[in-house]
Specification:
two-stranded antiparallel ribbon; about 400 residues; alpha/beta; six-stranded parallel sheet; rod-shaped; about 10% strand; 12 strands
Length: about 400
């Protein structure tokens, strides 16, 4: 009796479930029919207005399927055109993937408008009942996520300010040159007080130590570069009295000598005897030479040496620069013997002396390392003429102490 009652209750439950399922199927069918009917009515209205009709959407179990779903089989559908407005406001057909399918008669297919005439057509939204209309996506594939850019530190690196050189001279820094000393000497003769001379910047005080000036005439030449290396090895400074023509021929050597701290003086343009020239020729010759030196070194020479040491009242009047002679003549131009040149220079050197060499002779250049070594051993410092005369009485012609 109990088994029969349980069987009846099971059959009743099954019947209820079947009735509920049938009712659900009926509702879904009605919804699908309404959707198809609505779509058909809309298509008929478009055709009456002269626009192309779009195919009915694909539905599965009463739910619409997006046309841009990727895949094969029954779910695959041709891409629907997407309207892109051009600058003039007219819609331009485009597709999500591939080229748009041409409409019959060769006209490209247009997206079905959903607005009254005169309004740019928009892509037809596909929605479910009760859901606000959303614009159909136009990109079939997922958009890659771009990682956010690193946020720079809020604190910028601090750049130290560039040090600005001070325009104020350091106390105790000597500033007088040979030209100043000689000008002061001339003023003294005229009754103008002369300030006490001070040694040149970076030079030893030749009032307290033994100094000697090595001078080289007639260059630059083929052996000047070797001479510069010999001087650099001993950190010795010298004075070069250069010929204007050779400056033009070897500007790099003159520039190197000036950059190394050596002094550049004039020795006329072509080594002519100034005592044989007229006043205008003297001025022109020396000015041309000074111009060539300044063009290479950037600094005009402040002193000169007349070729052969030849000078007279006319030369002294029109030279307008101190004329530097010598206290020791090695006669290296006559005796081409390195040992003799070195021996004479070392034997006759005196504190405050000016020694004459010519760097156009290889025997002279070969003698310089021995001269530097011997005089350094005796405590001499090698300075330029301007550094030497910065602590000596000035004059238009300077020869130095005789041996």
């Amino acid at each position: 009796m109990n088994d029969k009652a349980g069987s009846r209750q099971a059959r009743r439950g099954t019947a209820r479930l079947a009735a509920a399922a049938l009712a659900t199927v009926g509702l879904l069918a009605a919804a699908c029919g309404a959707g198809q009917a609505g779509y058909a009515a809309e298509a008929a209205a478009l055709e009456a207005a002269g626009g192309p009709a779009s195919p009915a959407p694909v539905r599965i179990d009463g739910l619409p399927v997006e046309a841009d779903v990727q895949g094969g089989g029954a779910l695959a559908a041709p891409p629907r055109p997407v309207v892109v407005a051009d600058p003039g406001g007219a819609p331009t057909p485009a597709t999500v993937s591939g080229a748009p399918s041409p409409a019959p008669g060769g006209t490209p297919a247009q997206a079905r408008p959903t607005t009254p005439a005169g309004t740019p057509a928009q892509a037809r939204p596909t929605t479910l009942a009760g859901t606000p209309a959303q614009t159909r996506p136009t990109t079939p594939t997922a958009t890659p996520t771009v990682p956010p850019a690193a946020t720079p530190s809020a604190t910028a690196p601090t750049i130290p300010p560039t040090a600005t050189p001070s325009a104020t001279a350091t106390p105790g820094t000597p500033t007088r040159s040979l030209a100043d000393a000689l000008t002061d000497a001339i003023r003294a003769l005229q009754g103008t007080p002369t300030p006490e001379p001070t040694p040149a910047h970076g030079a030893p005080d030749c009032r307290r130590v033994k100094c000697v000036a090595l001078t080289f005439d007639d260059g630059p030449g083929p052996y000047t570069a070797t001479l510069l290396r010999h001087l650099a090895a001993r950190k010795a400074r010298a004075t070069f009295f250069v010929v204007g023509q050779n400056v033009v021929a070897h500007p790099d050597l003159v520039r190197r000598a000036a950059a190394a701290g050596h002094e550049i003086g004039g020795h006329t343009w072509s080594h002519r005897d100034l005592t044989t020239l007229r006043a205008a020729s003297i001025r022109s010759d020396l000015a041309r030479t000074a111009k060539a030196i300044k063009a290479v070194t950037g600094v005009a020479p402040t002193l000169m040496r007349p070729p052969y040491g030849a000078q007279n009242a006319r030369v002294r009047k029109h030279a307008k620069q101190p004329m530097i002679m010598w206290s020791v003549d090695t006669l290296d131009w006559r005796y081409r013997n390195s040992a003799r040149v070195a021996r004479v220079a070392v034997k006759q050197a005196r504190p405050g002396g000016i020694i004459l060499f010519h760097d156009i002779h290889p025997t002279t250049v070969k003698a310089i390392p021995r001269v530097l070594k011997k005089l350094s051993a005796r405590g001499y410092h090698f300075v330029t003429v301007s550094e030497l005369l910065g602590t000596a009485p000035g004059g238009l012609v300077y020869r130095g102490p005789r041996p």
